[in-house]
Amino acid sequence: MCLAIPAEIIQINNDDTALVAVGEVHKTVSLALVEQCQVGDFVLIHVGFALEKLDIEEAERTLALFAELGDTLTEAEPTVGATMGEGQ
Amino acid sequence: MKYIEEFRQQALAQTLARKIATAAKSDRQYRIMEFCGGHTHAIFRYGVQDLMPSNVQFIHGPGCPVCVLPMARIDMAIQLLKTEQVILCTYADMMRVPATGKESLLKLKAAGGDVRMVYSTQDALNIAEKNPERQVVFLAIGFETTTPPTAVAIKQAKALGLKNFSVFCNHVLTPAAMVGLLNAPLENEEQVAIDGFLGPSHVSSIIGSQAYEFVPREYQKPVVIAGFEPLDVLQASLMVIQQINQGRAKVENEYFRVVSPEGNRKAQQLMAEVFELRDTFEWRGLGFIEKSALKIRPEFSEFDAEQRFSCLAKPEAIIARDHKACECPSILRGVKKPTDCKLFGTACTPENPLGSCMVSSEGACAAYWSYGRFRDATKTEEAQSA
Q1: Each residue of A52-69: pLDDT tens digit?
Q2: What radius of gyration do chain A's Cα atoms show?
Q3: B71, B84, B196, B323: which could join B240 in a potential S-S bond, CB 3.0 to 4.6 Å?
């Protein structure tokens, strides 16, 4: 229920909505809950609303922290770049 | 997809898992409750539990709104549909939730009831605008993530002067549920011991990390707010384990890219404007918890379905009957696992759920069924052949 995914704003409309893109999928969402959004911002999308802006700097910082971890701790990692699949 | 797949990198997950294995001391147990059903889903979908040492255990919390809604509230919605001939709009998760007498909104729709599955409160408003001769009720559920969109819809309905739109409000509050869990008595196996929490992702984006300060202060337990992706869950688990090892209890935030200490002020203001606290509200599994849910303020009472329709005015008249063998209440408290339930995977499956935890993909039973039901069996076989 509380799932929300990051989407990029590609157009801001006059009626407090925006067209956003997640990969190839486009969707119009309400901007009623966020302030001062611009084209190019990433927002979290939940039940047709932009819930919060994603802080790109913080996202990159978290990723850099993970990468650093990988550099310092990995011995041999043949699967770099692979994403996690679904379990069964 | 940007800012999604980067947080699912397998090699980094293995690195974090090794860090956790090193950090977790072998002479103690780490019982980490992931409050939120979104985390339960991620833990199962990506096999996070399998990456953990055996003494690090996830206890699945009650943060699944469909799961914790007591059956009586669904019975009330069904009664509304039957007696008032309304158009009932709700999110997909609600459609298959079992009601008394094996009824559900989906079954009622099949029998001719006008139930509409909507993606957004905006869709429900559109339906009301297009059907001025019909009463349209939005059956609202969810924690603080889903509440602000309902507040927006009620304000829009007022601005538009809609006379045929109302909300049957079942919004509930995360911190109050944590209090309910932490205050439950430990005797008689009514409650499990919890060493620390993974804090919700998107509820926290609204209410802010400050909202959990009472947990370390009053209950001396760490809370680490985590994103919903597998690397987020692993990193946050490591942070909980490190706090436990150091004897610390603080609110920490792994999900800095979205969650701030103060949260989303605009959303908080909208919620405060439209909603006020209920004195008490019943939770499946947790019983009645004081000030744990929201109702619509008197200023917006014309949009409150509980005020508009007399059949909703007397909830005490409804006597809900949960399935006798259903273990959802114990599973929601973390006392039992889905596989401890006699109905799991036999009479109760996602196609034919008897208990609410089997309905939503973030319910513990549905997550076990989809991603984990063969896991324990495989482990047993491996142990026997070794």
Answers
A1: 999 999 999 998 888 887
A2: 17
A3: B196
Closest chain A residue to B18, measured at CA: A73
Cβ of A87 within 8 Å of Cβ of B46? The answer is: yes
Do B201 and A4 lie within an 8 Å CB cutoff? yes
Interface residue of B12, B68, B93, B257 to substitute, partner A, most A CBs within 10 Å? B257
Question: Tell me, what's the pLDDT at B377?
Answer: 58
The whole-chain average pLDDT of chain B stands at 92
For B343-360, the pLDDT digits (tens) are: 999 999 998 899 999 998
pLDDT digits (tens, 9 = 90+) for B211-227: 999 999 999 999 999 99
Out of A22, A55, A80, name the one closest to residue B1 (CB). Answer: A22
Helix (H) or strand (E) holding B232: helix B230-246
B375 Cβ partners below 8 Å, 6+ apart?
A87, B50
Q: What is the spatial distance between Cα B364 and Cα B338, in angstroms, rounded to a whole number? A: 7
**How many residues are recorded in chain B?**
386
Confidence category of residue B285, pLDDT binned at 50, 70, 90:
confident
CB pairs under 8 A between A and B: 168
CB contact under 8 A, B38 and A3: yes
Q: What is the pLDDT of residues B164-185, one digit of tens each?
A: 999 999 999 999 999 988 887 6
Q: CB-CB: which of B11, B66, B149 is closest to A79?
A: B11
Interface predicted TM-score of the whole assembly (ipTM), two decimals: 0.89
SS (H, E, C) B178-225: HHHHHHCCCHHHCCCCCCEEEECCHHHHHHCHHHHCHHHHHHCCCEEE
Report yes or no: B200 and B61 within 8 Å, Cβ to Cβ: no
Q: Which candidate from B66, B149, B375 shows the least CB-CB separation from A49?
A: B149
The reply to whether residue B46 touches residue A86, judged by beta carbons under 8 angstroms, is yes
Give Rg (Cα) of chain B: 21
Quote the minimal CA–CA distance from B386 to chain A in Å.
22
Residues 67-86 of A with CB under 8 A from B: 67, 69-70, 73-74, 77, 79-84, 86
What is the spatial distance between Cα B288 and Cα A85, in angstroms, rounded to a whole number?
A: 40
pLDDT in tens, A8-49: 999 999 999 999 999 899 999 999 999 999 999 999 999 999
Closest residue in A to B228 (Cα–Cα): A3
In the block, tokens 């055996």 appear at: B54
Beta carbons within 8 Å of B247's beta carbon, 6+ residues apart: none
Q: Do B123 and A48 touch (CB under 8 A)?
A: yes
